[in-house]
Predict the 3D structure of the following.
Amino acid sequence: MGAERVAVVGIGQTKHDTIFDGSIAGLVRTAAERALADARMTWADIDAVVIGKAPDFFEGVMMPELYLADALGAVGKPMFRVHTAGSVGGSTAIVAQDLIAAGIHKKVLTVAFEKQSESEAMWALSLPIPFQPPMHAGAGGYFAPHIRAYMHRSKAPDHVGILVAVKDRLNACKNPYAHLHEHDITFDSVKDSMMLWDPIRFSETCPSSDGACAMVLTDEAGGDAAAADGRPPAWVHGTAFRSEPTMFAGRDQVNPQGGQDCAADVYRQAGISDPRREIDVVEMYVPFSWFEPMWLENLGFCAEGEGWQLVEAGVTQMDGDLPVNCSGGVLSSNPIGASGMLRFAEAAMQVRGQAGEHQIDGARTALGHAYGGGSQFFAMWIVGAAKP
Amino acid sequence: MRDIAIISFAQTHHARAIEQENEVEMLQPVVVDAIAKAGITKDRIDFVCSGSADYLAGMAFSFVLTLDAVGPWPPISESHVDMDAAWAVYEAWVKMQMGKADIALIYGYGKSSPGNIRRALTRQLDPYTLQPLWADPVSLAAIQARSALDTGTVTTEAMAEVAARSWRSAQDNPYAQLKGDLAAADVLATEPFVDPLRRHDCAPITDGAAAVVLAAGDVARELCERPAWIRGIDHRIEPHMLGVRDLTTSASTAIAAAKAGVGDGPIDVAELHAPFSHQELILAAALGLGDDTAINPSGGALCANPVMTAGLVRMGEVAQRVIDGTADRGVAHATSGACLQQNLVCVLEGE
């Protein structure tokens, strides 16, 4: 938030898939054109473009904003590139909203993408000596000990991660853009899937996806105009970033201080004192199933150690009182650089009432959450159907 | 618009290779220096933003580890751009315009020595049509220089004079990598490197880092006797394909200059991020600079070019001259991409 109110008036995404059969430019342009169409705008209406993605190594294009300037209609305009690890999709949306909140621009297009089929992210994330100890293969290898620590601390039973995986994958069946549509998934099929990084099973792991997400953000007048036209916007009620160091023995990677602080900041801006009661729907960044109970605690939806009980009680199901990841979440689509923006965009879709089959009726206030690095970068926003 | 100023600037002694230090070790003293010169303690910083590129370190998420140079604990509000850190200044300036921060720390770093920077920068090109050609930035700049020579926009002599003047100016800059009492005739006496560019027409390969502290309004006045106020800042991008651009001008710089208000008053000093001598001439024309402006008194990028950082250094060099009272109004410029594809212009002014 800032001096000027900010509205989300257009949202677009690609069908996330193992391979997007087109160029990188085609991928981002597809999402951007859908967002512009949703906003009833053309390229000429846009004042500035803000783009984000995870490491350039994933596609082998250094600073791809240079190559994508033409495809995103940015020629002659400001084009800005954000990169904050896995949280980047969220951070990118925040940088875009800042341009409007600060009164610098009126209409900003923001885009995030990843085309994982161009490379092998798992090995790109397996850093060689001397950067990191040679103890892990990919993000799953890094996070598995955190999950093990969470299970130990909270005394959570083994099956909680399976419950999250089944829920998210079934929710994804209601989302036409989700990568995975596993209609036949069951508790037993997840339980019997290959153990990749104990305790993380194959079916509790996000897929490798190609995908892009785009949003058109406007000032208050733009939001009012959309509303008057029968296209309700999502209003931004709060935004926050937090970052933590890498090499610091004092930080808790299971329940990071940065995540707690970021949530407290965004709730304060949105005037939320009881997030469990006041937030209607959550899109959180859950690349491995167990992160749902972990983030429920980190985000203050319950006391520490109780997140798994909410999962077990069905609270985070679509018919629960705190639906989480109705879109299927990162567990069902993971175009890494776009995954954070998808969380922000899906939150906005819910309060705009445009989420289709995975819509939560009457959703008024939603949280979009993204994290990255070794659970050390956080980006969040709260969006509402009503003006802040 | 809220008044935002640069109140301190620090940089490394730029070198061809800073071999005994990793990125964190190279950057950390610069960050400490910038904070100390601002007369603050770390806990007063509301926002941190940085610029760097993974392709230099040769690893994904290299900036994640480098953030440790700031010691971000308790957790901080922080962001990163995969652009020259001059754009990180822009992001912080926006945050401060919103009233979300009163003091911001911005840093950039680039260590080109571990790899082959000319080859690495070929990865900036269209991956389907240009990357397979392995067209490196020096070769592309040579095409641009040839185009400017053919149209008479620049001359070989004028390019040599830019190079020689930069080397002479750098003699007064303790942080510069290259310097010397050089005349244009000395440059012209050397063999072409990538024709029509001679070695002196091209920026060196550099390791280095820089940091600035921004402060808003009365906070800036309290901390700095003569803050370097950002009176205008804007950035613009051009098409990627060289064939659809007029390489002899910089249309994006001209737009950014107009938006930033460069022409609203006299410019004492200009620090232009021109990694090639002919680019300085193209930029000076796009900015409308005349003979009364001292261009690149630091020696500019031709005398030290830490990638992802050289644009921030330009802002710092102008700001420092305003802060110490040797300039009243200056312009700083940063560029990104081949042949000046993307450009940022910032007007800095004393009170």
The first strand of chain A starts at residue 7 and ends at 13.
